[in-house]
Write a structure and sequence with these properties.
The complex is a heterodimer. Chain A is mostly beta strands. Chain A has two helices and ten strands; from the N terminus they run αββββαββββββ. A five-stranded antiparallel sheet of chain A has the order 1-3-8-5-6. Chain A is rod-shaped. In chain B, strands 1-6-2-3-4-5 form a six-stranded antiparallel sheet, with no helix packed on it. In chain B, 16% of the residues are buried. Classes of the chains: A mainly beta, B alpha+beta. At the A-B interface, α1 of A face β3, α1 and α2 of B.
């Protein structure tokens, strides 16, 4: 038999137990969130063109020279013009597309960039980097000549492109906002 | 803190920095602190351990009450009490002992 004090203790235990059982839980709801405010997304354009320096007309053909003889030369000039919104850097190079390998290798190129001498050497080795800045234009003068009088390169032709390719950080990169323009040229050697 | 027991009391008015228990839109009961009051009926809450405020603002009628007493660690006893060993220890065994004792008493009187 249980005495009164123990009975009371047992009753209290049951009461406390019932109280605890009916206690309800709340969520601590641990969470973390960060808000980045004031974001904006702007779309822009990067576009440029090659223009004739005389009349500002768009140009896709540069040299179209017939009968180039030893010690002969031809001169052309173009202006790179920003047509889009974004300023850009660009890489310029000459690449053979068709024709006689020997003639193409014998063609010499002298380049003036914004009236400063930029390059003097073999046509197909030409590489240069430039940028369109606040002035929005870039002037190039190309002076092509033939010094070799080897008869093997007479009555031959050489087709090549001047490639203008934009880049953001490195001249070799691809992707992102970019534009590429080609200026085609054809030079035919004369007979001697 | 996890494991604490809180006692809440309904109040006609809640102010900034009150820790309140409320039911959110998913019917979960959450205990967080009021950090801002947009109008009389809209409260912005945040857990003290959280870096950001709660996504859902709460209305006054969602608040069950504000915390008036915190008993540290007693929640673990609640969890134990709701388990089978706890239920036996707090309810069944005392109940059986009381019934057995009272039965013996009745027999003796009879």
């Amino acid at each position: 038999m249980i005495n009164t004090r123990i009975s009371l203790t047992l009753f209290l235990t049951i009461l406390i137990g019932l109280g605890l059982i009916y206690t309800e839980a709340t969520d601590a709801d641990l969470s973390a969130g960060l808000s980045a405010v004031g974001n904006s997304l702007n779309a822009t354009t990067l576009e440029f063109s090659n223009r004739d320096t005389a009349n500002d007309a768009k140009s896709s053909l540069l040299f179209n020279t017939f009968g180039l003889i030893p010690n002969g030369f031809d001169i052309k000039a173009i202006r790179v013009k920003k047509d889009g919104h974004e300023y850009f850097k660009y890489h310029l190079s000459a690449q053979k597309t068709a024709g006689d390998d020997i003639l193409c290798n014998e063609l010499k190129l002298e380049v003036w960039h914004n009236r400063q001498s930029e390059y003097n050497g073999k046509l197909l080795d030409f590489n240069a980097n430039s940028a369109i800045d606040d002035q929005n234009k870039d002037d190039w003068i190309f002076f092509v000549s033939l010094l070799n009088d080897d008869k093997n390169i007479s009555v031959k032709f050489c087709e090549f492109d001047f490639e203008f390719k934009t880049y953001r950080n490195n001249p070799g990169e691809n992707g992102g906002f970019s534009d590429r323009e080609l200026l085609k040229s054809r030079i035919t050697s004369g007979s001697w | 803190m996890t494991g604490d027991i809180i006692i809440i009391k309904s109040s006609p008015q809640y102010i900034k920095n009150d820790v309140v228990t409320f039911e959110d839109d998913q019917q979960r009961r959450v205990t967080h602190r009021i950090i801002d009051i947009q109008s009389d009926n809209i409260f912005i809450t945040k857990g003290d351990a959280n870096r950001s405020s709660d996504r859902e603002n709460i209305a006054k009628n969602q608040i069950l009450g504000k915390v008036t007493l915190v008993i540290p660690k007693l929640g673990y006893l609640v969890s134990f009490c709701k388990s089978l060993p706890g239920f036996l220890l707090f309810i069944i065994i005392p109940g059986v002992l009381i019934i057995a004792s009272e039965s013996i008493k009745i027999k003796q009187y009879v």
